Amino acid sequence: MEKIHATTVLGIIHDGKVALGADGQATMGNTIAKSNVRKVRKLYGGKILAGFAGSTADAFTLIERFEEKLNSYGGNMKRAAIELAKDWRMDRYLRKLEAMLIIANETELLVISGTGDVLEPDNQIAAIGSGSMYAQSAAIALKRHAPKLSAQEMVQEGLNIAADICIYTNHNIIIETL
Q1: What angle do CA 15, 42, 75 make, to 5 degrees?
Q2: Any domain includes 35
Q3: 56: annotated binding-site residue?
Q4: pLDDT of 1 over the 60 cut
Q5: CATH label of the domain that carries residue 59
Q6: Per-position b or e across 97-112, b if 16+ CB within 10 A of its CB
Q7: Alpha-carbon gap, residue 134 to 62, rounded angstroms
Q8: Annotated catalytic, 107?
Q9: CA gap 51, 142 in Å, rounded
Q10: For a surface tag, which of 11, 75, 101, 128 has the fewest beta carbons within 10 Å of its beta carbon?
Q11: At what angle do helices 56-72 and 77-90 cross, to 10 degrees?
């Protein structure tokens, strides 16, 4: 049985605002299993955003674990991310999870992977999932050449461009902002 996978997530910090968005497509092999998956969430009383790409059930497990770490470390996002990445790499159960996370607050944007990585991306732009390189390329160009756009507008347009190119990304976009 093939796993259900969810795809493109894009986050940007621009002009003191953060936006994190994702398309709604989940695929099973070469079939669209669902077109309106909600891959972006507000956490910790609305102070932190989290988005996922990869296996949906695995991602929900990781988001729950991240929330536990946030609560344990008083909302310190970077510390919670590092502790989750360490657990993810070391724990036999977590090690098998196939997903990636982008987390963000008003000043930091991080990518967390199952290999123990906690990355702070260049340009305050992060993208994960099958359409990530399309979305990230569009976001870099928008941030560079259309700086009057808001972070939310950049995420919207970056995801729309990815959806136009990537067959695993659709136009059912949900964006959260801080």
Answers
A1: 85
A2: yes
A3: no
A4: no
A5: 3.60.20.10
A6: bebbbbbbbeeebbbb
A7: 25
A8: no
A9: 21
A10: 75
A11: 130
Is the model's pLDDT at 33 over the cut of 80?
Answer: yes
Average pLDDT along the chain: 92
pLDDT, tens digit, for every residue of 83-103?
A: 999 888 877 766 677 788 999
Q: What is the rounded end-to-end Cα distance, in angstroms, of the chain? A: 39
Residue 177 lies in a domain: no
How is residue 167 written in tokens? 């067959």
Check residue 4 and give its pLDDT: 58
**Other Cβ atoms closer than 10 A to 147:** 10
Residue at 46 is within a domain: yes
Lowest mean pLDDT among 12-26, 38-52, 108-122, 125-139: 108-122
| Annotated binding-site residue? 166 | yes
Token pair for residue 10?
Answer: 């894009």
Selecting among 7, 8, 27, 56, the annotated active-site residue is: 7
Task: Note the pLDDT of residue 6.
Answer: 65
Domain count across the chain: 1
Range of the domain at 60: 4-166
163 is in an annotated binding site: yes
Tell me which of 71 and 6 has the higher pLDDT: 71
